[in-house]
Amino acid sequence: MREMREAIEGRSAGPLGRNDPCHCGSGKKYKACHLNAEQAAQRGTAPGLGQPAAPGSRHVQRIAGAGARLHRHNPTLIKTPAQIEGIRQSCQATRRILDLVEARIRAGVTTEEINTWVHEATLAAGAIPAPLNYRGFPKSVCTSINEVVCHGIPEQRALQDGDILNVDVTCILHGYYGDASRMFLVGDVKPEARRLVQVTRECLELGIKQVRPGGFVGDIGQAIQAHAEGADFSVVRDFVGHGVGIRFHEEPQIPHFGTRGRGHALLPGMVFTIEPMINAGDWRVDILEDGWTAVTRDGSWSAQFEHTVTVTSSGVDVLSA
Ligand code: MF3
Ligand code: CO
Ligand code: CO
């Protein structure tokens, strides 16, 4: 998931006028920003829109630095049907790798062994493991046990009876990114940890149900937050879902908390992840000295599920299901 680097600014629901501020948060007028691209996308005639950018191209989406605003027009926000099919194939490779992990996982397996399974299965699928060397990440998969919220680095630690584990796989297949993760229960898991995993699964399902053209990013976050907090759990704030497909992490950010009718408009052809991280205790996290591993500050356990979805003309299509 993507680190939250700037506050998500909302706006009131309602039709957007040509002279209103663009929903993407650029601060430009809608007509000077996303209006033309979206009209073209809706007509299905978006010449050159959203083509995969070559590495180093100045059209490559940059992740904004701390405090930066996303000013630039983003050619990857709305994907073409051909791109969505490519992303679907990559997501399906990711799903099959998670199925393989699911069939093999048991107490005594080390996270390093899971890394080897994922690495080899990814190559066998003709794909590249996106995490490897991504911003210096040293392994091909993230494995996050118990109080680890996300970005756990595979190592020699063996899974123990009672552990809960997230395995987060991202393939690059024919240049397209497919990102998904699941929880696994190792042996006899305490009832409270089982409840955490089940509620987190439901949070993802409820978030996905909010996705439809005419909706807003805030609808997703509101549904997830209400369900998690209603179960006396908390929603992690520091990491969010993200646009995905042409790059690993694109616009828009998808917080797992928020307010209905606020945030970026949901538009047909957008592709993004929903990946709620839900803590049994407080939502605050710390990053360990390795610079990656995010753990709950209070030591409580944390769970996460992730899918890549696309907004269709009538609703949602879960590309990694
Ligand atoms: N797969 C994670 C996500 O859902 C990102 C992992 S980045 C890595 O966005 F470098 F840690 F692999
Ligand atoms: Co993700
Ligand atoms: Co992921």
Short description:
The protein is of the alpha+beta class.
The dominant shape is globular
**Largest sheet features:** 4 strands, antiparallel
Q: How large, in whole angstroms, is the Cα Rg?
A: 19 Å
Name the helix and strand elements from N-terminus to C-terminus, one letter apiece: EHHHEEEEEHHEEEEEEEEEE
Proportion of residues in extended strands: 15-25%
Helical stretch tally = 5
Oligomerization category of the chains in this entry: single chain
Helix content: 10-25%
Say how many strands there are: 16
Bound molecules: 2-amino-4-trifluoromethylsulfanyl-butyric acid, cobalt (II) ion
Distance between the termini: 18 Å
Low-confidence stretches: 5-15, 40-71
Mean pLDDT: 86
Structural class: alpha+beta
Tags for this model:
single chain, 321 residues, three-stranded antiparallel beta sheet, globular, binds 2-amino-4-trifluoromethylsulfanyl-butyric acid, binds cobalt (II) ion
Describe, in plain words, how this protein is organized in 3D.
With 321 residues, this protein is α+β, with helices and mostly antiparallel strands. 25% of the residues lie in helices and 21% in strands. It has five helices and 16 strands. The strands form five sheets. Strands 2, 3, 5 and 6 form a four-stranded antiparallel sheet that branches. A hairpin with a 6-residue loop joins β8 and β9. The longest helix has 24 residues. The radius of gyration is 19 Å and the shape is globular. The protein binds 2-amino-4-trifluoromethylsulfanyl-butyric acid and cobalt (II) ion (CO) (2 copies).
